[in-house]
Amino acid sequence: MNRADATFREAAAEPRLESERFSHVSVELGHIYMEDFAAGAERLRTMLSGVARWVEVASQTDAAKPRVSTSFMIDDYFSLYSTPAKVLPMLLDVAHDCGLSIDYLARESACAVFDGVPLAELVEARLIPVPPVGTNGSRPLATEIGWLSNGERTPADSEAMRRSAWKPPVEIGARNHSVFVDVELWSKVKDGKRKWSCAFLAAVWQLMRLGLIRDQGRAVVHPRPWDGDFPAAWDELPAITQLNPRAKPFAAYRTFSVLPSRFLQVELAVRTILSQVAMDPALLDHIINRATGEDMRIPAELIDRVGYVFLTE
User: What is the pTM of this model?
Assistant: First the structure.
């Protein structure tokens, strides 16, 4: 085999970057746990009554004709309640009464594994924790211990520490004072498998909505349409269900989430995680170039593409 043949085969073996359709903005209308459903329609109405006005705010973009899609997340990962056939009609009725149209309904378990593809593991593999200044890399990797921080932790207690001054944790890049965050990514359960944390799954969810998760260059997050009655079991529902046949694309150049204030702490952890995820540079350039071609300006930093409003309950 000559050099030309070798070059051709190596290039052909590189993963092909699959393109996706994009909206300008993906608006998350809510994130509900099963206990919220258990509390009934009035509980849902309280949560959704103030959301509609923020959809209009989030829809304001540089684009002349903004493409906006809406989504709603339901937790079926940490707990289960009733069946989709019983609770989803209630959710959709309440949403309609509150002036909301849900284009896509997502199950939180899909952020761990989407149609057989381990999304959480794909994202974890791209974590590159920022090393604190002056360290020698001896601290265990986040993928080994399941914890990710935005700085230098307080040294572990030891006899030597008891004889010296206590040292506080320090945020990397702190302005005047530190805001130190230590995020649990996963815990281990009895069978040795990982139980992904809410914060990590929420970080995966943001990357899904930004169209940034690929498996060997292949787009893997594909909503599926649903028509008719909902099923009797949550795992019979698609990972992401497209409820509106005329919905704009699920992935978007920017995301905007309207959430109860109880999610503030979780989303701080999400931003800590996203700030230490290294996505494929070719994919990042591809998306920025497409956005620029549509007169849509998006920041280079991932966390700057993510917007929020937190509402009191």
Answer: 0.89
Per-residue pLDDT tens, the chain, 313 aa: give them. 443 333 333 344 456 788 899 999 999 999 988 888 888 899 999 999 999 999 999 988 877 789 999 999 999 999 888 999 999 999 999 999 999 999 999 999 999 999 999 999 999 999 987 666 555 555 677 878 899 988 888 776 555 555 567 788 888 888 888 888 999 999 987 777 899 999 999 999 999 999 999 999 999 999 999 988 999 999 999 999 999 999 999 999 999 999 999 999 999 999 999 999 999 999 999 999 999 999 888 999 999 999 999 998 7
Residues in Cβ contact with 113 at an 8 Å cutoff, skipping those fewer than 6 apart: 119, 120
- The residue behind tokens 């009035």 is 42
Query: Tokens 């071609």 map to which residue?
Result: 293
